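Thread amino acids onto this structure.
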């Protein structure tokens, strides 16, 4: 249940940009036109005129209004999984309503109107859900590929010539592969034989995957704020946004990553508390 809750509350950043919104709308319209042209789901060829393009243009208009007028109106800057699902359903209901207003023949009975509308909703869902899902799946993969840059087996060194303010990752022939300023480092997470380094590039969260262990890394860290708090985590204490005491230790939240809860285990509890005290004294 917790995994499902975490999944549906996951943020979806790739519909923030105008470019991605337009790509999504264009892809849905293209797919819908091809689908309607091939399968003729509304029996619109029986109306005595080809309405394929008109149907797609109506849908295009609704999507443009939804993404560029209604979203700012309701102050929706970024979706989460559950809110995107609800928003997509709202768009489909709205498209069906517009179709019914424009194309539905006169029907006297209110019950018949409801039945006709629900049939249209069903048909709209069948057309729109597939391209919507495919696009979001594709952009999520692209997002992961851009944030994960797997580096070859490497060693870690620190930049002693500049006041130890950089964590420098060297690869073969001692070439620098990655350098992170300690104030920009948020936390490090173990992932099997790899470490995930989370840090800020400007205001953007960046994640790098490095082949090494905490044992290799720990002795190379020269910033007292970067400490081990769990067998699977190291954090930069300057980026702690909140903490909550638990039975075994603490549960932390880090700035810029509000959905990630990082545990402080009992074995590292004293070290963590000492680090907090030292931070207060400075």
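Threaded sequence (282 positions):
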């Amino acid at each position: 249940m917790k995994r499902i809750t975490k999944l549906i509350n996951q943020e979806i950043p790739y519909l923030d940009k105008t470019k991605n919104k337009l790509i999504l709308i264009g892809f849905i319209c293209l797919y819908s036109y091809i689908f309607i042209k091939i399968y003729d789901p509304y029996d619109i060829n029986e109306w005595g005129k080809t309405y394929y393009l008109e149907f797609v243009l109506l849908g295009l208009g609704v999507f443009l209004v939804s993404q560029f007028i209604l979203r700012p109106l309701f102050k929706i800057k970024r979706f989460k999984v559950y809110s995107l699902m609800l928003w997509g359903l709202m768009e489909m209901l709205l498209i069906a309503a517009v179709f019914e207003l424009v194309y539905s023949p006169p029907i006297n009975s209110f019950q018949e109107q409801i039945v006709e509308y629900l049939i249209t909703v069903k048909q709209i869902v069948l057309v729109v859900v597939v391209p919507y899902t495919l696009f979001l799946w594709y952009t999520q993969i692209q997002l992961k590929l851009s944030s994960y840059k797997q580096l070859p087996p490497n060693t870690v060194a620190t930049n002693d010539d500049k006041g130890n303010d950089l964590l420098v990752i060297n690869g073969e022939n001692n070439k620098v592969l990655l350098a992170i300023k300690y104030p920009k480092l948020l936390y490090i997470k173990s992932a099997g034989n790899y470490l995930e380094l989370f840090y800020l590039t400007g205001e953007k969260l960046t994640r790098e995957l490095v082949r090494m262990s905490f044992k290799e890394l720990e002795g190379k860290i020269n910033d007292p704020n970067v400490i081990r708090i769990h067998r699977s985590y190291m954090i930069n204490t300057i980026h702690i946004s909140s903490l909550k005491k638990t039975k075994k230790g603490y549960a932390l939240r880090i700035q810029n990553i509000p959905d990630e809860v990082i545990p402080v285990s009992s074995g590292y509890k004293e070290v963590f508390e000492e680090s907090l005290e030292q931070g207060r004294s400075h």
